[in-house]
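job 3f2a | input accepted
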Amino acid sequence: MPTQDEIFHKVQSALVDALGVDEDEVKPEATLVGDLGAESIDFLDIVFRLEKSFDIKIPRGELFPEDILTNADYVVDGKINDAGLEQLKKRMPFADLTGFEKNPAVQDFATMLTVQDMCNYVASKVDGKA
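job 3f2a | predicted structure (130 res):
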């Protein structure tokens, strides 16, 4: 099983290749959208690169749960309700959602995912393979 450092460097490499950013920009606390400029189309490329790099399968919607963000049961006036937040926490145990919980606007969701969240996700997938 790879170390946290090895996981970070592979995730960093995938993000540098997918987003065309410099290696020194890809820090654990950097957000994918806000700091690294990722757009929705980039997430497909990122997922592909992570799958290839770590020999894992990332099911659609597991890393980026769009279905929750577009579900009328969970979204009220552009914000995720408590039931939606609970679903996000269940589906995304690898992500720190504390900042998002304070103002759960759907449009801001993508801006809160960090490089560290991606590393945590990959670590959970790689760990599950062992």
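job 3f2a | The helical segments are 4-19, 40-54, 66-69, 82-91, 98-102, 115-129.
job 3f2a | closed
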